[in-house]
Design goal:
The chain has about 600 residues and is mainly beta. The chain is built from three helices and 36 strands. The strands form eight sheets. Strands 2-9-8-4-6 form a five-stranded mixed sheet, with no helix packed on it.
Length: about 600
């Protein structure tokens, strides 16, 4: 029995030692963090998938003339990781642009991840449209496999529209019917007034107002008469009733006619006026034949032979002639430049004593165009006031003649040299180009374009529209070089100056692209981490394990000593025999 208990004690001691070694190994592995448990498929499927992004763009197109049609293609690029199913493109045309054909929504084929869908439209620009028009577009679609969700993307496409040129005011010539003989005092007669349209557009809503001179009277109830519409190259007529006064003081009578009308698609207002001479017999000499009224006309004029720059100086020279049969006297010539011209020093009035029948004179005046004058033909009015003597009677006559001088605004649209930042291969950078309109007139249809290869840009063409006089701004391009080294490109800028002439300027650029530097990876390496401690193994300090082993040994030794003191042989405690009676020494017999 003693050996049996001894063996059980030794076995317990060995078990405690094994547990101590396992605890020491667990302490060494204690710093390791156990991996997170994997997420189940049911938990990951509960989170909603993000809506795929869609990039909407259109094909390149030239300026769409107002009133015309053109086809464009609209692209929808799927930037997401899932396919777009049953996509529908819906367009909302504005007033300036409409979609031909009647439909504004279009069904597209499914667009795979990274793929592009497209739809072709026929656009029509309104007759009155001008500048950049906006075309809103929205793409509605569904995405996802197990539980499809609805998504949408929208954008506004810019449609450049070129306005129709303004219609030129038609010139209307006013004439009268023939008068067989001079009008006698008290004589009533009908006079037909004819209006001829020499322009390219129809004259509409016309009304003529007549005003007779002091020797004539108007017999109609009203002095304003409606005139039918006049097509280009056609004529229209009205009839007025006149009567000579009882006392006609002058043989030079007249009828002033003012015509007001509208023309063109914009219904612009126009006017035409003239003074029609009507011969009459004066009361004092009704039986005598009077001479016709002498007229002064401008035979020719000169302004230098080319368009006058706004703010520039030029000599205005004109030759006027007396076309009558009587000498004219006390001639006063006045030059009126209106809003665009002024006399460059001195007076705008000249005086001449007399001009014989069939004779001519030349007048020259220094003129200057006002800096704010618009481009195009501008009017200069030359007025003549003179007198003539017929049958001992002196009469005064006035006449206005309008001259046309072309004016041009200088092109002072300034573009600075492009400024570029430092570029790195594969990284986006920016190139900017500053501009300022130093002129006094607007410039139109400003457009900039990146030209070259070896880079990518989200927008290689930019349309900036019109730039007002005195306005400034900048044009910026974002680009990403594809490789390091030297990158050659150019910025091409086009616009229309004040004379509607297209101007093109190009700025070459040579960029130095540097190599990209890879980012360092500071993530820990899993191979360097110690293995995990099993969760079932308790933590037992090494000192506690050693103390337990020493206590067990001390208990066994003390028990053996106590047994020896009770009288039994101490050697019996160290026997390893399985049978307690085996190998025990025989006790000596008492004598």
């Amino acid at each position: 029995m003693k050996q049996f208990y001894f063996r059980r004690g030794v076995a317990s001691l060995m078990a405690l030692l094994a547990l101590s070694l396992l605890s020491l190994r667990a302490l060494a592995d204690e710093g390791t963090v156990p991996p997170a448990p994997p997420t189940s498929a049911s938990e990951s499927s509960d989170a909603p998938a993000p809506v795929p992004g869609v990039l909407i763009s259109r094909s390149d197109m030239a300026d769409l003339p107002a009133g015309s049609e053109a086809e464009i293609t609209v692209f929808f690029r799927n930037l997401g990781g899932v396919a777009l199913k049953s996509p529908v493109a819906a367009f909302s045309p504005a007033d300036g642009v409409s979609i031909a054909g009647g439909a504004s929504s279009f069904l597209l084929d499914d667009i795979p991840a990274g793929g592009t869908g497209s739809v072709t439209l026929k656009l029509r620009a309104a007759d009155t449209a001008a500048g950049v028009q906006s075309l809103p577009v929205e793409l509605r679609f569904s995405y996802g496999e197990d539980a499809p969700a609805a998504g949408a993307a929208s954008d506004r496409l810019s449609i450049p529209v070129k306005a129709k040129p303004a219609d030129a005011q038609p010139l209307v010539l006013i004439s009268r019917s023939d008068v067989s003989s001079p009008i006698s005092p008290g004589e009533a007669f009908d006079l037909a007034l004819t209006f001829k349209n020499t322009g390219d557009v129809t004259v509409k809503n016309a009304a003529a107002t007549v005003a007779p001179s002091e020797g004539l009277s108007l017999l109609n109830a009203a002095s304003t008469f409606p005139v039918p519409d006049i097509a280009p190259g056609k004529t229209a007529s009205i009839t007025v009733k006149l009567q000579g006064a009882n006392q006609i003081s002058s043989a030079a009578q007249s009828l002033s006619v003012d015509l007001r009308y509208t023309y063109g698609s914009a219904a612009s207002a126009g006017t035409a006026s003239d003074r029609l001479n009507i011969p009459a017999r004066a009361a004092s000499s009704a039986s005598s034949v009077e001479k016709p009224v002498p007229n002064i006309v401008v035979q020719k004029f000169d302004y230098g032979g080319k368009a006058v720059a706004a703010g520039g100086r030029f000599p205005l020279s004109f030759t006027f002639e007396n076309t009558g049969t009587a000498k004219v006297e006390n001639i006063v010539v006045t030059v009126d430049g209106g809003e665009c011209f002024t006399v460059d020093g001195g007076s705008n009035t000249a005086h001449y004593d007399a001009l014989g029948a069939g004779k001519a004179l030349t007048q020259e005046m220094p003129m200057q165009a006002v800096p704010t004058c618009k481009s195009g033909a501008q009017a200069v009015t030359v007025s003549f006031k003179y007198e003539y003597v017929d049958a001992g009677k002196r009469s005064a006559v006035t006449s206005d003649i309008r001259l046309s001088v072309p004016v041009s605004q200088p092109d002072r649209f300034q573009l600075n040299q492009p400024a570029a930042a430092t570029f790195t291969a594969g990284e986006e950078g920016e190139v900017t180009l500053a501009y300022v309109n130093k002129g006094r007139a607007d410039i139109g249809n400003l457009e900039a374009q990146l030209v070259g290869e070896g880079f990518e840009s989200p927008a290689k063409v930019q349309y900036l529209g019109n730039v007002a006089a005195g306005a400034s701004g900048s044009i910026g391009f974002a680009l990403t070089p594809e490789a390091a080294g030297k990158l050659d490109l150019a910025i091409k800028v086009t616009y229309e100056d004040a004379d509607l002439q297209t101007q093109t300027k190009e700025f070459p650029l040579s960029l130095t692209v540097e190599e990209g530097v890879p980012e360092p990876d500071f993530a820990p390496d899993d191979a360097d981490l110690p293995p995990d401690r099993p969760a079932w193994l308790p933590v037992i300090p090494a000192t506690a394990a050693l103390a337990a082993a020493a206590g067990t040994a001390f208990f066994l030794v003390k028990r053996l000593r106590r047994k020896a003191a009770e009288g039994g042989p101490a050697a019996d405690a160290w026997s390893w025999a399985e049978d307690p009676g085996e190998d025990e020494p025989q006790q000596p017999k008492e004598e």
